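From the pipeline queue, job 12 of 40. The input is one protein chain; the requested action is below.

Action: predict structure.
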Amino acid sequence: MIKTPQQIIELIINAKSYVDVFENLDNYDITFTEYIKLIHPDLCKLPNANDATVKLNKFKTDIEKGKVYKDDAGIVTYFPFYCIMEGNSDLLRKSLSNYQMLLKFNSTDDLHFHKYLPKEMKMENDKLKISFEHRAVPLSSIKILPQEHVNWVLSRLLEIIGWLEQKGYCHAGINLDSVYIVPETHGIILTSFYHLTKEGQNLKTISGRYKSFYPHVVFIQKTAGSFIDIELSKRVAAFLLGDTSGNGTVLRKTHNIDFINFLLTYDVKKSSFHIFKEYRNMLQKNFEKKFHKLNI
């Protein structure tokens, strides 16, 4: 359906993300050219034509040049279907090696969990390129999510943690930078494996940027265990609900109390599988089972 200049302007002004404007990201350049010819202020005198043009150009730049943030290894530039990491080459190569090791777990049951891993990771000129099956964005670019979306983000995290524990590993670096979400399918992808450690072994590194998210016992015992991943995931969930400390206590007055109590409960003895079952039961008791579209 052909859009009028007014319709295009309204579409862009109301857009929360470039996916609202470019329905097919593979052909975004064609759509951009069509739209800019109709709404550029040199040719179009409709109200908001200039603002829409500026926003349309920004969307195009975001797709072509990406957005940037810092993580444990250095600088990350992310695009709709991949990201580029550059910085500490030793850390980047360690992350790649750990990713390749996890892929070797490839039984029929294991393949289900590969969807939480990148489609591909490879070094290109000392930079690590990480590719995705679908459009994905880092949690650190989102900041806050509604409860119904935090519900499934935490569910996915606890699920992949359970798999890692089953294989004898602790990720030890789950945070807002290392977790990307797939808005269209409600999926998550772990994009870095800098701190991956075998369960029970000495934990040599953690994410300095998210030091406050780790349980205090980590700095005393320094031993890898799934409880670390569980607590990190809970802190991520609390952050996404609006508590930037990751603690969650302040959310008692504003959010579902059973959910917040789950975030605040700490138990190093329970397996991640047991924790996941408790979480799913809590969700079933407190929330309607429904797919909520995420528009970001």
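Job complete. The first strand starts at residue 67 and ends at 70.
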